[in-house]
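Supplementary Note 2. Why include the ligand at all?

Several targets in our set were suspected to adopt different conformations when bound, so apo predictions alone were not considered sufficient. For every target with a known small-molecule partner we therefore ran a joint prediction. The input for pyridoxal-5'-phosphate is given below.
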Amino acid sequence: MTAQSSRAANDLSAPNDLEAWWLPFTANRSFKSRPRMIARAKDMHYYTPEGRAVIDGAAGLWCCNAGHNRDEITAAIQKQAAELDYSPAFQFGHAAGFATAARIAQLAPGDLDHVFFCNSGSEAVDTALKIALAYWNVQGQGGRTRLIGRERGYHGVGFGGISVGGIVKNRQFFGSLLAGVDHLPHTYNRAEQAFSRGEPEWGAHLADDLERIVALHDASTIAAVIVEPMAGSTGVLPPPKGYLQRLRQICDKYGILLIFDEVISGFGRLGTAFAAERYGVIPDMITFAKGVNSGTVPMGGVIVRKGIHDAFMKGPENAIELFHGYTYSGHPLACAAALATQDIYRDEKLFERAKELEPVWADAVHSLKGLPNVLDIRSIGLVGAIDLASRPDAVGARAFEAMDRGFHDHDVMMRITGDTIALSPPLIVSEDQIGEIVDKVGKVIRAVA
Ligand SMILES: Cc1ncc(COP(=O)(O)O)c(C=O)c1O
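The joint prediction is reproduced in token form.
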């Protein structure tokens, strides 16, 4: 690229050449023929380059829980960038990193009191799985290597995450994945659960499948079970009443570690800091990302119980205890953004707000029942999902059109997976805006009938 053409490419006021960027999890050719471009954002809205406001029904990608471009977060990032742009976390530390870890540990239930930082949900999951394996090694039970995930689970896109995950398309193209992984059954059954609000009554017994897996492999070979308390990316599957408690009991019975992947459910999405609190179930590790700093700077992490952390703190004091980490673990900008975000969550009581709004949200989302092609609606916390009937021989086409028309014609951003529309607005959403989002989604559903 010549100096002149690179200057032209940096000029964002001119129409972009869309060729070079290969977009993730995107129908690239379709996007490039009819782009959905976003130029800026504020509070509950995105704005297109032409200045059209699009209400955010998805908190970006389940992450902007405090709303967009909050002045306090912007200021904190700017200040940090001017003060300490980068600091290595291998053998060095900085104040914002320690303050952020302490702040997150305070929010976590029970004795989950140490935080390992990384930069995304995928890295958080792979980190948690590695800590589980290494933990059993340092405990002298290195035979515990098997990892148990769940069908329809989404744990990001690292090899660990897709191995324990259960979304077929995310696995089928990528070879043999990790060995020694097994899966629990997913918890969705439309015949038993359709149009449930919150946790469905039916399905706690599905946790008992862990007994079958233990009987098959023997507990002495199993390191950990990982589940999302609420499966998000597969289309919003709230846990059946009693299911997570049962999973905890069975893990305790066999000494198996339980990991909650709270990359979506963390930071208020279900009306509590973590879903673990909502369900009164204390896992051994919690993975987080997204909402930790409202999606502003890439950040993820794993919160671990004291006993797990302490098991590593043996041997010579100058020896590395865990051979794992990332160049950007605890990046100063991500930490500054996280601290400012956590202040907003606390000062504006956004987790409590999500809890208070849950019934209003549920009423609104469930009002879409009866619209054409609506097969099921689920709601929990400030999350909702609408399953649409697939078009013949074109699974996903109806929801794709809904997402596209929602953005272009009805000024609403939504998330889709298969033929499911998923909604998860920023936690600052007002009751009027809930009405507006659902009204727009209703219009879109009619438009794609
Ligand atoms: C439960 C869960 N785990 C992991 C991830 C992966 O996060 P990331 O895209 O930041 O790698 C996601 C993303 O949606 C998620 O929902």
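The pocket of pyridoxal-5'-phosphate is lined by residues 62, 120-122, 125, 154-156, 228, 232-233, 261, 263-264, 289 (CB under 6 Å). The chain has 17 helices and 15 strands. Comparable summaries for the other entries are listed in the accompanying table.
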